[in-house]
Amino acid sequence: MKSTLVALLVAGGLLTACNAQQPPPGVAQGVAPALRAENTSPAKLAEVQQVLENRFKGAPIKGLRAAVFPGLFEAMVGDDLIYFDEKLTYFMVGNLIESASMTNKTEERTAELNSIDVKQLPLNDAIKFVRGKGERVMYVFTDADCPFCVRLEKTLQEMDNVTVYNFLYPIDSLHPDSGRKSKLIWCSADRQKNWLDYMLNGKLVANSKSDCANPVEATKVLGQKLGVRATPSFFLADGRMVAGAIPKDQLENRLNAAQAKIAGK
């Protein structure tokens, strides 16, 4: 799927050659990455905001701030976090990695800017599982026929102290029969059992119907509104979204960090 930013650039004839191997101003001269005060003043940010709006007309822009590279800024334009100079002569789209911790700063910032208020999620439209005390919470948008969703489900079976809300989110273009299966599971007498039977054992519920009142179509609309473009994708208790069936140790760390954040630690 073409990103919003790329689509805008193509439509407006503004696609610019960006050499990711070319160091930003200052870096090649050995200037240590640091925020510069003159780049973060309200007047400077307002000026840069106007440059962005003029170049990317009609695109939603948020999160403008000075980047960790001297002389550069960052902002989310449409679906993409970009790094650029104040005149937007050059910009880069890609992952910025903090080498000391190997933290993906682009992914971290994108998740922060795309965070949601999880209190607004329609929990009655999800299949709920509680493991142990269930103190840590995740809200998963999952596709019954997605192999990576199966992988995440298997990982969750090995975890404790977590509450999982599974929102059935079939991606029809990839898995055309997933919607029907999701509705069969939702309409069954025991949704929890039949969901796990199918995801873990490939056993689809028999003697169920698919025409009961169900939230599958509404969940599709909700997921699109929230920016869910792949499965599995899940929101943590602090509202940040994580995409993919990440390994168990990473998932534990994400859950713990979100729990600590909402607890005010």
Low-confidence stretches: 6-35
Within the largest sheet, what's the order of strands? 7-9-8-10-11
Instruction: Report the principal-axis shape.
Output: elongated
CATH-derived architecture of the largest domain: 3-Layer(aba) Sandwich
Label the structural class. Answer: alpha+beta
Span of the ends, CA to CA? 39 Å
Helix content: 25-40%
Name of the level-1 CATH class of the largest domain: Alpha Beta
Number of strands: 11
CATH topology-level fold name of the largest domain:
Glutaredoxin
Radius of gyration: 21 Å
Q: Please count the helical segments.
A: 8
**Mean pLDDT, rounded to whole units?**
85
Molecular structure report:
This protein is α+β, with helices and mostly antiparallel strands and 265 residues long. The chain has two domains: 110 residues, no CATH class; 145 residues, Glutaredoxin (3-Layer(aba) Sandwich), CATH 3.40.30.10. It has eight helices and eleven strands. The strands form three sheets. Strands 7-9-8-10-11 form a five-stranded mixed β-sheet. β8, α4 and β9 form a beta-alpha-beta unit. It is elongated.
Write a brief caption for the model:
The protein is α+β, with helices and mostly antiparallel strands. The protein contains 8 helices and 11 strands.
Layout of strands and helices, then pairs:
Elements: H1 4-12, H2 42-55, E1 61-66, E2 72-77, E3 80-85, E4 91-93, E5 97-98, E6 103-104, H3 105-113, E7 127-131, E8 136-142, H4 147-156, E9 162-168, H5 178-187, H6 191-201, H7 216-226, E10 233-236, E11 241-243, H8 248-262
Parallel strand pairs: 8-9
Antiparallel strand pairs: 1-2, 2-3, 3-4, 5-6, 7-9, 8-10, 10-11
